[in-house]
Amino acid sequence: MPFAVYVLGLAVFAQGTSEFMLSGLLSSIAGDLHVSLAAAGLLTSAFAVGMVAGAPLTALAGRTWPRRRALLLFLGVFVAVHVVGALTSSYGVLLATRVVGALANGGFWAVALVTALALAGPHRRARATAVVVGGVTVACVVGVPAGALLGELWGWRAAFWAVALVSVPAAVALLAAVPGGRPDGAPQAGARSELRALARPRLLLTLLVMALVQGATFCTFSYLEPLVTRVTGFGAGWVPVVLALFGVGSFAGVTLAGRLADARPDAVIGLGMTALAAGWAALALTAGHPAAALALVLLQGALAFGTGTALITRVFHLAPDAPTMAGSFATAAFNVGAATGPWLGGLALGAGLGFRAPVWVSALLMCLALAGTAALSVSSDAVGRTLSARRRPAPER
């Protein structure tokens, strides 16, 4: 695997830390800015909404830029808004910085995915995707718990400063390792051609399934802190440990999926989604038992990110003639789930359904994702029968 692909994973680590670290800082932010826990949770949704809009728009605007220049520009904006976020005392300003930072992060993700796949070659797509997505899982293992620990020791603003500082060496490494032009050297398809390619029904249904899977993941992940402290019975000092456990599982899942999904993507997706649905229901039922809760947090992290990696790879497989915009739409779908999941979890909490309610919402979202996968299989079988009928020789008269 080219070294530049790992550098892209390093940059994603810095940005992934910012995207997910609020799950360990919600109570601190809510208390400091005098807002509700649900309002603090919306900061995660705001970031995801910015990613949804930012990935296609910034990828479309920057399609003709040299990829290294685009990556450095997006990362520079990301650093700047974190400095502003660390300094502000206004919830509105903090919310705005999350959206702007997400716009930059969405553009970075879209360009990083297509760059990694171009550098790795057609037979290592899943492994290259796993390295980039692996930056997020390392963020869950190291960055997110570290952010929670910094928030516990010096306040939530310290976590924002840390993200800005960690992004600087990532930018230096990008400047040194990523080629300045288009790494594949291939002629670039027109924007209209790429957008038309994305209108294929099977691709759109795959993006919908990806959004549902990620919605289930982030619905529970965003409210892990109140779940483990108010249902499982752990003290606040255990929150970084639980978040790290989820991250360890995520890293293991991404690594395994990267090795399996190039050869057997359908098996990875089908088995992973079924296990996820069962796992969220099991966590909702056993959250009051510490050992069961810890084991399921680890397992669900592995299943969620392993399945997500395989789904991203499938998107690129279904849109080989639209690589730039396929990466942006995969990023957008990922973050549609990351936006709606915390929102739905917040609605469940606000309705007084208890701190287990977001986990039950996750189970329901996975049931919907499984229904979408079943529809994909039916669609695939129908296409296969149609092609076979067309290839069959006509009967002699």
Question: How big a fraction of the residues is strand?
Answer: under 5%
Oligomeric nature of the chains: single chain
End-to-end separation in angstroms reads 57 Å
Quick one: biggest sheet? none
Low-confidence stretches: 183-187
Helix count from the secondary structure assignment: 15
Give me the Rg, rounded: 21 Å
Share of helix among residues? over 70%
Summarize the helix and strand pattern as letters: HHHHHHHHHHHHHHH
What are the key terms here?
single chain, 397 residues, mainly alpha, 15 helices
Write the layout of secondary structure elements.
Elements: H1 3-20, H2 26-33, H3 37-61, H4 67-87, H5 91-120, H6 125-154, H7 156-177, H8 191-197, H9 201-221, H10 224-232, H11 239-260, H12 265-286, H13 290-318, H14 323-350, H15 357-391
Helix pairs in contact: 1-5, 1-6, 1-7, 2-3, 3-5, 3-14, 4-5, 4-7, 5-6, 5-14, 6-7, 6-11, 6-13, 9-13, 9-14, 9-15, 11-13, 12-13, 12-15, 13-14, 14-15
Describe this structure in words.
The protein has 397 residues and is mainly alpha-helical. The protein has 15 helices and no strands. It has helices at residues 3-20, 26-33, 37-61, 67-87, 91-120, 125-154, 156-177, 191-197, 201-221, 224-232, 239-260, 265-286, 290-318, 323-350, 357-391. Helix 9 (201-221) runs antiparallel to helix 15 (357-391), helix 12 packs antiparallel against helix 13 (290-318) and helix 13 (290-318) runs antiparallel to helix 14 (323-350). The protein is globular. 57% of the residues are buried.
